[in-house]
Amino acid sequence: MKSGFIAITGRPNAGKSTLLNRIIGEKVAIVSRKPQTTRTKIMGVHTTDECQLVLIDTPGIHKPHNKLGERMERYIYSATRDIDALIYVVDVNIPERELEAERDALKGLKTSGVPVVLAVNKIDTMPRLNLLPVLDRLQHIYDFAGIVPVSAQKGENVDKLIEVVSGLMEEGPKFFPDDVITDQPERQIVAEFIREKALRLLNKEVPHGIAVEIEKMKQRDSETYDISAVIYCEKQSHKGIIIGKNGEKLKDIGRQARQDIERFLDEKVYLELWVKVKENWRNLENFITEMGFQKN
Ligand SMILES: Nc1nc2c(ncn2[C@@H]2O[C@H](COP(=O)(O)OP(=O)(O)OP(=O)(O)O)[C@@H](O)[C@H]2O)c(=O)[nH]1
Ligand SMILES: [Mg+2]
Question: How is domain 186-290 classified at the CATH fold level?
Answer without folding.
Answer: GMP Synthetase; Chain A, domain 3 (3.30.300)
